[in-house]
Amino acid sequence: MNAKSEMIKHVADMVVLCATITHGSEWRDDQTNFVLRVGHTQADRDAFFQSLDFEYDSGFGGQELYGNIWYQDGTWSDRGEYDGSEWWQYQSVPKIPEECAADTKEQNGHIAQQPQA
């Protein structure tokens, strides 16, 4: 699997705020870190994606690619892994259930404390 192609396909049209990617075995000292910082320019983004232009085995053995991608809308992606297979998985903050909202007011899916009378 090509790390650059996989990430570009995964982020699609999402606005990437920042990202950290680590390639290599967690059991050996051969890890390489890639960072896309908040406030990056298009040139920074292009260089970051170009640095990910390498092949890795996403389907057998131990996990080889670790990381997180933060999006401008407050969601994120992280790496999933099971039995040697690995992938990007999209995450969002779950809506707070009503039973947790006692004495609070929900605003845009977030809980705000009510002022004390």
Amount of helix: 10-25%
Lateral strand order in the biggest sheet: 2-1-3-4-5
State the helix count: 2
| Distance N to C terminus | 59 Å
Give me the Rg, rounded.
18 Å
- What is the element string, with H for helices and E for strands? HEEHEEEEE
- Structural category: alpha+beta
Oligomer: single chain
Contiguous low-pLDDT stretches (5 residues minimum) are none
Q: Which band does the percent of strand residues land in?
A: 35-45%
Could you tell me the number of beta strands? 7
User: Biggest sheet: strands, sense, closure?
Assistant: 5 strands, antiparallel
How many domain modules? 1
Mean pLDDT: 87
Categorize the overall geometry.
globular
Short overview:
The chain contains two helices and seven strands.
Keywords:
117 residues, 16% helix, five-stranded antiparallel sheet, two-stranded antiparallel sheet, 36% strand
Give an overview in words:
- With 117 residues, this protein is of the alpha+beta class.
- Helices cover 16% and strands 36% of the residues.
- The chain contains two helices and seven strands, in the order H-E-E-H-E-E-E-E-E.
- The strands form two sheets. The protein has a five-stranded antiparallel beta sheet, covered by helices on one side. Strands 6-7 form a two-stranded antiparallel sheet.
- A hairpin with a 2-residue loop joins strand 4 and strand 5.
- The radius of gyration is 18 Å and the shape is globular.
